[in-house]
Amino acid sequence: MDVLVTGAGGRTGQYIVPALIEAGHRVRFATRQAPYSGPLSRHDGATPITADLAKDDDVARAMSGIDAVYHIPPNMNPDEIAFGKRLIAAAQTEGIKHLVYHSVLHPQVQGLTHHWNKVFVEEALIESGLAYTILQPTSYMQMVAGDWEGISKRGVHTLAFSPQAKLSLVDLEDVGAAAAIVLGNPDHYFAIYELGGPAMLSCEDKARVLSDVLGHPVRAGQDTLDAFRAKAKAAGMPPHIIETRARMFAHYDTNGLAGNGNVLGWLLGRPPNTFDAYVRRELLPLKSV
Asked: Which of 77, 135, 169, 204 has its CA 20 to 30 A from that of 198?
């Protein structure tokens, strides 16, 4: 099957595209910047294309000759609803057989705008007449890699919310495997699947696993939201993303992010990967780099 993967240049696409290729699909992956020279270029069966989701002609060109679409929306983009609806309209015009939407766990939480925006894309997809599948993954285990310097050099895993707040965490390797299972498979048409992780983990829980696996003490730390804002601004993060993330951290501080791994386990036919397994596979090798 010829598949278009949108938003493929980020962290999510690095797992989705290889999983679809391994499943036998021919993948055209779209990124906004050209020329693409990232890690996806190493995969046979993956063809890059430049497409701006804000432009009708770009979306139609990217979708031409394609059988199915896996839509990864741009992260925390205020125009996500318009992008999603434009993509759905193009899929209708092109006669796409299956559209998989990479949504998020708990899109109905209005205070989390990057979750809430996805409700309206899901609604448009449900009403489109297209065969669809909606995947709703929770927070990724891979996010911890963004704090690798603090973990490896200072022995502190720092987040901008309570170290006791518990989140369901999912391994992107499992999300990619689930994507490969559902895409193009009529058994999974018109389904919405929550992709939760196998356990609820706090920063303190993660620190204990990191300590055990990496072989040196790691403790949980907490930044204030003001400290997060200052660091993010200094790093050049766009203001709307800074504030979206700040709202997300405040929500986690109060509510955590509760999820259940049963659906993902059913799809995979095995238990979802644990955080321990993720750390051993992806972080432990970094110690020797």
From this structure: 77
C-alpha to C-alpha distance for 119 and 125, rounded to whole angstroms: 10
How far is the C-alpha of 215 from the C-alpha of 149, rounded, in Å?
16
User: What digits encode the pLDDT tens for the residues 131-154?
Assistant: 999 999 999 999 999 999 999 999
β-pair type (2-6, 98-102) = unpaired
Domains delineated in the chain: 2-140+169-195 (3.40.50.720)
pLDDT in tens, 154-200: 999 999 999 999 999 999 999 999 999 999 999 999 999 999 999 99
Rounded CA separation 139/167 (Å): 8
Query: Any idea how long the chain is?
Result: 289
Q: Who contacts 64 (Cβ-Cβ below 8 Å, separation ≥6)?
A: 94
